[in-house]
Amino acid sequence: MFQNRAEALALALPAALFAAAVFIAPVVILLSDGFRAPGGGWTISAYTEFFSSSLNQAVFLRTLKLGVLVTIVAAVIGYAAAFAIVSLEPGKKGKVTGLIVLPLMISPVARTYAWIVILGRTGIVNQAFQALGISEAPLRILFSETAIFIGLLQLFLPLMIISLISALENMPKDAIPAARVLGANWFQVFWKVILPLTKEGVVIGGTLVFTGCLTAYITPAILGGSKVLMLETLLYQQVTVSNNFVAASVIALILIVMSFAANILLKRVATARNKTMRNTKGTAQ
Fold it and tell me: What is the pTM of this model?
């Protein structure tokens, strides 16, 4: 398309400069605040101080735990849903995929407030539990880790399903029938055929879901309240309530590192699994 590389770089330069001016530079300035010493120079005392607090440790572990749980459950449900959708006729597949995408077009605020109605003391869930005799009094579901987990799962599950649908559609159509003919059960088909061939969808979907759980503010703030804090809600409190931009910088860098680490870990796991399978095949031969 281009005569030389310089033409392509010249076209990309305005966008690169704009991104550097409005995104990269402010982020670098914000993150650098966490390493600045009060009297000048550089230090990591802000990070040691952050992790020395038992409250911050609990918030960090809670954020990591919920992010991992939501990602794993989204992958399990996403595989089942994506496999069912891919198996549909083309006309039905488009309609069902549209229904999967539809929640993404609704404001997260509206979707999260709907869970208050559903999970409240007089909500549908508590009414069903009392009608079935599971509990005599309304359960406290709101303002808990359970409520945040449900809200985040509902919020980001479509991203996982869409990623897996794309991966399954690119998988060879005869791969599953061939494995079944060779005597593999459904667990072996999934573990040794479907999962390796759709690893890119898992990596993309897992990164989107886990990163979304780390950066979502509205859902943890509404469903968790002020008592069940996550890193994103703690960051907001440090800026708006405490006016502590150093602590906010520390939390921001932690969130960025966790996001990149999740993507790298998923890629490493997928690559390691492929190497293990190739070595197993080579040994068998």
Answer: 0.86
